[in-house]
Structures are given as C-alpha cells and as structure tokens.
Amino acid sequence: MKLGFYPGCSLTGSSREYNESLLAIAKAADIELVEITDWNCCGATAAHNLNHELSVSLPARNLALAELDGMGELVVPCAACYNRLVMTQHELNEKPEIKALIAEKLQMPLKNNIKILNVIQFLEKHIVPRLDELVKEPLAYDVACYYGCLLVRPQKVMNAARFEDPMTMDVIMQKLGAKAIDWPFKTECCGAGFSVSKTEIVGELSGKIVRSAVDRGAKAIVVACPMCHSNLDMRRPAIESYLNLKVDVPVIYITQAIALAMGLSAKEAGTHRHFVPVNLTVNC
After folding, report:
1. pLDDT below 50 — which residues of the chain?
2. Domain that holds residue 264
3. Which of 63, 95, 119 is the last residue of a domain?
C-alpha cells in the first residue's frame, strides 16, 4: 500500500528520529509512505502571525502538489504541520474567493479534497488493525500519553473526540501492553514556539507536565508532536531548574513505542538520539 507523506521541516532535521521510527513501522506493516514532490515549509508557528495570505499559500501549495501526485490520503506526522494544513483546507472550503485567489497565485489547480491524516489517525486506520500480529515485545510499564494543543484544537475544525480528554493514544499504548495513566495534563500547552525565545516559560509549562506524569508513576511520556518532544526532552535543564528537581523520565514518540513493541532495535526506533536517555525495560 502507498500513501502520501508530508514530513515537514522538523522530521528532516531536529526530529529525524520521529521520521525514522514512522518509516520503520510503516515498512513493517507493508506500507510505503511517498513524499510529496518538491514540498515546502508549511509556515509552522510563524507565518499566520505575520502574513495571512502567505500562511494559507504555503500549506495550500503542498496540498496542490499532493493532488498532482495523485494522492488520496496524506499522512502528516508533525502536529504543527497537520494543524496548518487542516486549517488551510478548512478555510479554502469555507471561502471560495480565497481558494480562487490562492490557486491563481500558485498557478496550480487546487481541488482541496485530499484526506489529511495526523499520525494518530494514520496509526488507528492502518497500523492498529495489525498490531496483534506485529507486536513481539509488549511494553509492560506505565506511560503518560501527552497530546498537546495542536492535535485537538480548534475543536470545531479538528473534530477531535473528547478533545479535553482524548483516548486514542491511550488505547494504542494499551494494545502495546503498556498502561496509560489517568492524568490531567494531556492537552495542556508545553510552551510551543517559545522553546528558543522564552525558555523560562517552557521550563514552567513543561515542568508542570513532567511533574504530573512522574507523580502518577509514568515511566515514559508518549508524544505525537516534534515541538512537544523538543520542549519536554531538550529543555529538561529548564524544567529541572523550575522544579528544583532532577527528573529522568524519558519522552518518546508514539511511533517509537510501536517500533520497540514490534521488536525493532533502539537504533531503528531512533531512541538513541534523545537528550534524556531512553532506558526502558521491556517486559519489566
């Protein structure tokens, strides 16, 4: 099976382990993820604050290119990229005049009817049905599933079920043999794009998330967003400074958890690339 794939900037750089683990589990499930030809940055966290027309044009070009490539479904693993593409698709469908303007500027046809899947939707549809046969080494430990802001908001566009208490990752982790803890920080903000400009804010917001997970016995925090992973993992010194406490709970992508449960190596899962060491004992 072949599916369209938009990796976005993070998965080709700072979050390459996310890309590696996603491609590894897709291959194990006989799925080929085919990148959009000549894709571009979606604008991420900055463009929509600076130039609205540009913020729509950047994601729209990727959608138009995916259509030209004949893609019916497009997997977008980065939560920020997914949010920008889905928001753009929604706006273009709601405002035909904007759609016509953007199509003219791009000099490309823009049907705007491609199905966009975030990583959780991709897993639920194409990987979960095969987990019984693919899981070789169940993960027998407690985890905190952290969804962050962008996979569930705005609720009217994302149509996320239980948008304040989503359960999809929890169910997936349970199928992998883990126990998903009940905790109140599933969709709280980690500090998002303040990671570089205002690290102290990230330290406080992410610190509360990490502390809540640790206090409830989580042996790992499971994420589905490069920005969330960066803030919870790379900014651990700022977190520990805010908490005045050293915390060594690792942060892993949901795709890495699946890869480990499939019996793939730490290198194949990319867990060796993290700032906080991932020393999870399987079948503990």
Report:
1. 282-284
2. 134-273
3. 119
- 110 closest CA partner among 125, 88, 138: 88
Does residue 65 contact residue 111 with C-beta atoms inside 8 Å?
Answer: no
129 within some domain = no
**From CA 259, how far away is CA 219, in angstroms rounded?**
17
Cβ(254)–Cβ(119) under 8 Å? yes
Q: What is the CATH number of the domain that holds 92?
A: 1.20.1050.140
Strand partners, 228: none
Q: Which of 119, 153, 184 is the last residue of a domain?
A: 119
- Give the integer Cα–Cα distance in Å for 14 and 8: 11
Q: How many domains does the chain have?
A: 2
Paired residues of 5 in beta bridges = 35, 75
Give the DSSP letter of residue 149: S
- Report the distance separating Cα 139 and Cα 260, nearest Å: 8
Residues 222 and 138 placed together within one structural domain of the fold: yes
DSSP string, 70-127: T-SEEEE-SHHHHHHHHHHHHHHHH-HHHHHHHHHHHTS-----PEEEEHHHHIIIII
Q: What is the pLDDT of residue 282?
A: 45
| In-domain check, residue 18 | yes
Give 94's contacts (C-beta < 8 A, 6+ positions apart).
none
Report the alpha-carbon distance of residue 208 to residue 213 in Å, rounded: 9
Same domain (yes/no): 111, 153: no
Per-state percent for the chain, helix, strand, coil, to nearest 5 = 50, 10, 40
Six-digit token pair at 238? 């700022």
Per residue in 40-78, pLDDT (tens digit) is 999 887 666 778 899 999 999 999 999 999 999 999 999
Q: How far is CA 164 from CA 62, 89, 149, 154, in A?
A: 30, 23, 10, 11
139 and 216 both lie in a single domain: yes
